[in-house]
Amino acid sequence: MLHILALFSFLLVSSSHAAVQDFCVADLTAPQGPAGYSCKTPAEVTADDFVYSGLSQPGNTSSLFNAAINTAFVDKFPGLNGLGLSMARADLAPGGVVPMHTHHGASETILIAKGSITAGFISSDNTVYLKTLKEGDIMVFPQGLLHFQVNTGRTQAHFWVSFGSSNPGIQILSNALFSNNLPSELIEKTTFLDDDEVKRLKALLGGSG
């Protein structure tokens, strides 16, 4: 019995030493490293570091994709640093789209607040998981898999997004192919698109080469 009590006491002391810091509010004036931002000193932390109001208003959907994505990632919301979560707001006009993309750093969950959204993802064995979602529906997109959302309704749509990281990262497939100087002939060989289509997409998305 004394051995058990001694072990229990040791575990309590060890855990209390491991949890000496309640949070690590990001010091946005310092460079971000692989492990995130360094911490502000406790004397510099205020309640404002744990509050963000940037998602309160609809975004401007007058864009190429007829969609607006406003993010609450750690670079805007320093209280998220080290907590493993973040959020975003998506507003889509009728026909608007969040194009095929991935988040290498997190899984994603969406909650439909208004309208109707068709959403899906593609698994690593190329199976498609597709669903039309209505208000109140939730869908999850596993980390690293290609996924998308389209407003297939007749009215403005709006959904909330949560991520399992304070900085989930994003790579949009169309931008990765057509918004840079990757030579057109290489894109044509690796995607089986013809030269005219590659040049059209590069002109549309600002690429060259």
TrEMBL record:
Keywords, in A-Z order: Apoplast, Disulfide bond, Glycoprotein, Manganese, Metal-binding, Secreted, Signal
InterPro entries attached to this UniProt entry: Cupin_1 (IPR006045), Germin (IPR001929), RmlC-like_jellyroll (IPR014710), RmlC_Cupin_sf (IPR011051)
Sequence ranges assigned to domain Cupin type-1 in this UniProt record: 53-199
Superkingdom in the source lineage: Eukaryota
Keyword Mitochondrion: no
Residues making up the signal peptide according to the UniProt record: 1-18
Residues engaged in binding Mn(2+): H101, H103, E108, H147
Tagged with keyword Phosphoprotein: no
Any one GO molecular-function label of the UniProt entry: manganese ion binding
Disulfide topology: C24-C39
Subcellular location: Secreted, Extracellular space, Apoplast
UniProt: oxalate binding residues: H103, E108
Gene Ontology cellular component list: apoplast; extracellular matrix
Family: Belongs to the germin family.
Official protein name in the record: Germin-like protein
